[in-house]
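ASSEMBLY PREDICTION REQUEST
Request ID: AP-0331
Submitted by: J.K., bench scientist
Number of chains: two
Total residues: 640
Priority: normal
Notes: Please return the full assembly, not individual chains.
Input sequences:
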Amino acid sequence: MQSLNNRNKRSRGIAIVLTTLTLTVTLPLVGLGFDVGTLYLIKAKLAAAADSAALAGARALSQGATEAAQEASAMSTAQSFFAGNFPAGYWRTSGAAATVAINSTSTPNYRTVTVNATVQAPLYFLRVLNQQHSTINVMSQAGRRDVLLMMVLDRSSSMNGVVAGTGQTACALMKTDAAAFVNYFAPGRDQLGLVAFGSSVFVYPSTTSFTTPDGNGNTIQSLIGQLTCGANTASAAAIAAAYAELKNVNNPNRMNVVMFMTDGRPNGVTANYYPLVTDGCAPASQRNTFVGVIAQWAGGAHPNGNTAGLMQPTTTSITFPNDNVPISGSNACQFYNNLENVRNDVPNLPANDLYGNSTAGPYSQLNSATWPYTTPFNPVGGVSVPQQIVIASTNALDNEATQVRTDPNLHPYIYDIALMGDGPVDDMPDTLLLQKIANDPVLAGDTGVGLTFYQMQIDQPHGYFAIAPNASQLAVAFDTIARQISIRLSR
Amino acid sequence: MMAKGVDFSQQANQNLVANDLANGLSLQANNGNVTGSTSGNGVLVLSVFESLTSACNCANGGHIVVVDRIVIGNHTLYTSPFGNPASITNSGSVANYTTDPGAQADNVSSVIAIGSGGLAYMAEGSFAFKDLGAVGFITNLGAFNRAVF
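STATUS: Completed
Returned structure:
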C-alpha cells in the first residue's frame, strides 16, 4: 500500500509535462498547417488575378490609335482586372499590387504583357516565430499576336435594295459596319488590306498605317466609304486576290486572316477563256490570253437566260469605272459591243479558273440533290447557261478557300459573313458552304446533312462563320467576327 | 460560347462542369439548354461582355453589353445583375445585342474597366449548402464567387 502511494506521488505532474511537451510540438504544427493553408489559398487567388490581368491586358493591346496608346490601354486594363479579381483586404491581406510590363520587341509580331503581383498575407500561429506576415509573389504572362487581315467585301448589285425599317440600302449599311470593323485592330502593329469585288476585283494592299491617309489621301475606311455597289459576284477571284496579298507579305509570324463578306451565291468565273478558232476576235497567238470574267445575268442560277462576258477582271479604282466593260484587245469580238454575245465567241467554260481551281467539283458533285446543282457541271456550252456559271463559280470558290486553308507556311484563317435577305431566295448565300469555307468548329461533328465533305478539317485552321439575317444585323455579324479574331490573337 | 475549344452550350460539356469541376456540389446540367433549370443546389453564369464603340452605328453604341450568356444549373438561386437580354440563342449568343436595351450592362464597370471595343469574360457561381448549418441557428449557408478575365 505504501509502495503504491509512493508510485502515485512519483507520477504526479507527469501529465503536465507531457501536455506541455505535446503542445510544444503540436501547436506549431497546427499553426504551420493553418498558416500555410491560408497562404496557398491567397496565392491561388493572387495567381488567378494576375492571369486575368495579363490576358485582359493582352486583349487591350488592340485598343488605341498608336502603339503608345495601346500599351497604356493594356496597362490600365490589366490593373483594373487585377483589382477586380483580388479585392482589397481579401483574407486580411494588405498591400496587394501588380506591376505590368509590356515587351514589344523580343518576338517579331508578338507583344507580351507580364504581370508581377505581390501581397502581404497575415500569419496567425507563426507569429510565435516573430513573423507577422508573409509576402506572396506571383508572375503571369500573356501575349497578343499581330494580325495580317484582308477584308473582302461583296459590292454586287443585290446590295442596292433598301432594307426595311432602316431607310438605307444594304450597301450603305455594309459600308458603315465594315468601316467600324476596322476600329477593332491596332494601327502600327496589325496590317490590314481591302479587297472589294463585283465582277472585277479591287485590291488595296495591306498596311500597318491603315488609319493614316496614304499619298492619295485614302485610308481603308475612306475607301470603304467610297464604295458603290453593282455588278456580279466573282467570289473566288476576290479570295484569290486576298490570298495573293497574304503570300506577297509572306509573314508567318502574323496571324494571317481572310475576312469574307457576301450576300449571294458566286456567279462569276474569272479565267483564261479560249475564243472559237473560227471566231475572228482573237488571232491564234492571242487565243490563250483572254483573261476575263463571265457571269450570269439571268437573275439567278436558271437553266436559261442571259450570260455576259468577257468583263475586265481587275480594277485599280475603288469606284469601279470598268464595271461591265469588255476586256482590252477584244475589239473584234462580238461581246465587245454587247457582253451578252459572249456565247458566240467563247463556247465553253474552262476546267479551271485563273487561280487553278477546278470548276467541275467536288462541291456540286456532292450536292447533286440540291438546287441549283441538280444539273451536273457541263463545260461544253456552259457559257450560255446561267446555272452552269453558278455551278462553276461555286466550285471555284470552295476550291480557292481550300487552297488558302491548306497553305503550309502561312496557315491562313478564313472568317466569313453571310448577309441574307438581299435579292431572290435562290440567290441567297449557301450558309453551309460558307461554314465549310471558314472551317467553322460547329461542323466538327455531324453536319446534319450526312456529308463528311462539310465536316471541319482538324488539321486546317478553323475560323468562324457569322450570319446576318438582314443588313440591319450586319453590325452584329462584323462585331462577332472581330471578337472571334480578338480571342484568337490574345492568349 | 466557347473556352479553349469547349462549347458550354453543349450538354456533354455542361456535364463536365457539373459532374467533374463541381463534383459534390449538386450542380445539375440542364440538358444543353443555355438558360438554366430549376434543379440542384448550384448555378454558374458564364458571360461575355463587350464595350461597343460609338462607331458601331447601333442603339447600344457606347455601352457595355452582354454578348454571350450561358446559365448552367439552378437559375432560381442567382441572377446575374449584369444585363438581362431579351433573347438568347441556343448557342448562348445574345440576339440583337447591338440594339436590345436589356443587353446593356454598364454596371460591369463597377467590377472592371473595359476600354472601348474591349471584352471581358465573367464567371459567376452561386451554391447553396442546404445540408449544412444548424436548424434555427445557422441557415441559408452558401458560397458565391466571381471571376473576370
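REVIEWER COMMENTS: The interface with chain B takes residues 48, 51-52, 55-56, 59-60, 62-63, 73, 76-77, 80-81, 83-85, 173, 176-177, 179-180, 183-184, 441, 473, 475-476, 479-480, 483, 486-487 of chain A (CB under 8 Å).
SIGN-OFF: pending second reviewer
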